[in-house]
Amino acid sequence: MLPESVAMTPLATGERKQCTVCIFGTGDFGRSLGLRLLQAGYEVVFGSRDPKNRALLPKGSKVMTHTEAARTAQVIFIAVERDHYEFLTSLTPALEGKVLVDISNNLKRGQFPQSNAEYLSSLVPGASVVKGFNTVSAWALQSGALDASRQVLLCGDDPQAKQAVVNIAHSLGLTAQDRGSLRAAGEVEDIPLQLFPLWRLPLWIATGLIAFFFFYLLIRDVIYAYATDGKDISFRIMISLANKVFPIVSLIMLALCYLPSVLAAILQLYHGTKYRRFPDWLDRWMLCRKQLGLVALALAFLHVLYTLVIPIRYYVRYRIAAGTIAQIKENTTKPFDNTMAWRTDSYYALGMLGFGLYVLLGITSLPSVSNVLNWREFRFIQSKLGHVTLLFCTAHTFLYGWNKFLRASSYKWWTPPGYMLSLVVPCVVLVSRLILIVPCVDNTVTRIRQGWERPEVKGGSQSNGGAQHPLMP
Ligand SMILES: NC(=O)C1=CN([C@@H]2O[C@H](COP(=O)(O)OP(=O)(O)OC[C@H]3O[C@@H](n4cnc5c(N)ncnc54)[C@H](OP(=O)(O)O)[C@@H]3O)[C@@H](O)[C@H]2O)C=CC1
Ligand SMILES: [Cu+2]
C-alpha cells in the first residue's frame, strides 16, 4: 500500500513540500527531472554512487547513497541505463514495497529479449515497477519545451503505483496515458525509436511516383525530341518537367487518399457485412491517409510556386517576344480566341479553387484544428469537401489537355502524356463515389455500416475484430 500523500490526486504546490521523490542516478535525465520536481514543489533526493559529488545538481536537492535515498521516498525514478541495473539487486530490502519508475530507453528495437521494465521487475520482485517518462527528453524537461511531448505513457501491474506516477506527471504539467500492464512496456520502449512510422509509406509512394514520372517524361519529352529532331531542350528539366511531375504526383496521391474508403465500401458490399476484417494492407493504407494528403499538398504547393515563375522565365519571355516580332514582320495580328480565353481562365480558376480547398483540408487535419471539430464537421470537410477538391483538381488537369486527348501527335511512341496518366486514379475514385451515392447502393452501404447485416456465425466465432474502421469517411 502507498502512503496517502503519494497515491492521492495531484497536490497543491504547498502540500507537495513534504512529499519526497527519489531519483537514482545524477545524469542528464535525473538532474532535469529533479529540477522540474523541485520547481513543482517536491523534495528531491538523489541516490548516487558518489554522494559527495554535488556538481551540477539542482539547488535545493539532497544527495545520498542509494540505500539512504530509497528510505526517504515511496516513488523512486531509476535514471540509470539498463546495463547497470544489477546494482539494484543488492538494494532489494530497501526497495521492498516501493514504486520504481523505469524511464530507460534502448538503442535499437529488440535489443534485449525482455523489456527493461520487466527486467527491472525481475531484479526487484518486491517493488512495483511502472514504465513511463521515457518518451520525454531530458532537454524538454529542462527547457520546458514540452508541447510536442507533453504526454507521458505509463504501464504497470499495480494500479496504485501507476496512480502515484500519474499524479507526479500531472503536477509537472504533463498528461498521462495508461498503456496497460507491464507486458506493454516493450511497446512503450519502442516509441522513442520510431522514425516517422506513418510517413514512411506516403513518402515511398511519393518518391516512387516522382521517379517514375520524371523518367517517363524525360524520355518522352526531352530525349525523344533530341533523338528525332536533334533539338536540345534539356533546360526544360529544371522547371517545365518538374512542373509536370509535381502536379501529376500530387493529384494521384490526393486520389490515393480517397481510394481506400472506396475499396472498403466495395469490400463491405461484396461481403454484405462490416463484420469482417479488412486486409492488412488496406488497414495500413487507411491509417496513413492524412500523411498521404499532406505530402500531396506539399507537391501541389510546389506546383503553385513553379507556375508563378512562368512569366519571368527567359524561355517564356523569348517565345512571347519572338511571336510578337514575327507578327510585326508579317504585318499580321493573331485574332483573339474566345474559346481559348474561356478554357485558360477556367483552367486557372479550377486550379486556384482546388488549391484553396486543398489547403483547407491540410489545415483541418492539424490536431489543434481537428480537435475543435466534431466528427460530423470533420467528416464533412475531409470527405465531402475532399471529393470536391479532387473533382476540381481533376477538372483542372482535364482542361489543361482538353484538345490534346484526341490528337494523335500527343501520343509519342504511343505513350500518352503524363497528365493523361494522372487522370486514371482520380477518375476511378470519382466514378466509384458517384456509383456509391446512387440511392439503392447508398442504402445498402448504410445498412451494412450500421451493423444491420451480420454474417452467419459459423463454428461459434466471427472472423471480425470489430466495427467499421474509425477513420473511414
Ligand atoms: N537523456 C534523456 O533525454 C533521456 C534518458 N532516458 C533514460 O534515462 C536513463 C538515464 O539517462 P541519462 O541521464 O541520459 O544517462 P547518463 O549517462 O547521463 O546518466 C546515468 C547515471 O546513471 C548512474 N550510473 C552510471 N553507471 C552506473 C552504475 N554502474 N551503477 C549505478 N549507477 C550508475 C550515474 O549516476 P551516479 O554517478 O550519480 O551514480 C549516471 O549519472 C537511461 O536509461 C536513458 O535511456 C529516457 C528518456 C530521455
Ligand atoms: Cu495545375
What average pLDDT do the residues reach?
88
Ligands bound here? NADPH dihydro-nicotinamide-adenine-dinucleotide phosphate, copper (II) ion
Helix content: 40-55%
Which percent range describes the beta-strand content?
A: 5-15%
Output the strand order for the largest sheet. Answer: 3-2-1-4-5-6-7-8
**Which sheet architecture does the biggest sheet show?**
8 strands, mixed
**Unreliable stretches, pLDDT < 50, 5 or more residues?**
1-9, 457-473
Radius of gyration: 31 Å
Domain tally: 2
User: Which of globular, elongated, flat, extended, rod-shaped describes the shape?
Assistant: elongated
Distance between the termini: 47 Å
The total of beta strands comes to: 8
Decide which structural class fits the backbone: alpha/beta
Cofactor: FAD; heme b
GO cellular component, one term: endosome membrane
GO molecular function: cupric reductase (NADH) activity; ferric-chelate reductase (NADPH) activity; metal ion binding
Organism: Clupea harengus
Explain the layout of strands and helices.
Layout: H1 4-7, H2 13-16, E1 20-24, H3 28-39, E2 43-47, E3 62-64, H4 66-72, E4 75-78, H5 92-95, E5 99-102, H6 116-123, E6 128-131, H7 138-143, E7 151-156, H8 159-171, E8 175-178, H9 185-190, H10 197-229, H11 242-271, H12 280-287, H13 289-308, H14 314-330, H15 338-364, H16 367-370, H17 375-400, H18 418-422, H19 424-436, H20 439-449
Parallel strand pairs: 1-2, 1-4, 2-3, 4-5, 5-6, 7-8
Antiparallel strand pairs: 6-7
Helix pairs in contact: 10-11, 10-13, 11-13, 11-17, 11-19, 13-15, 15-17
The protein binds NADPH dihydro-nicotinamide-adenine-dinucleotide phosphate and copper (II) ion (CU).
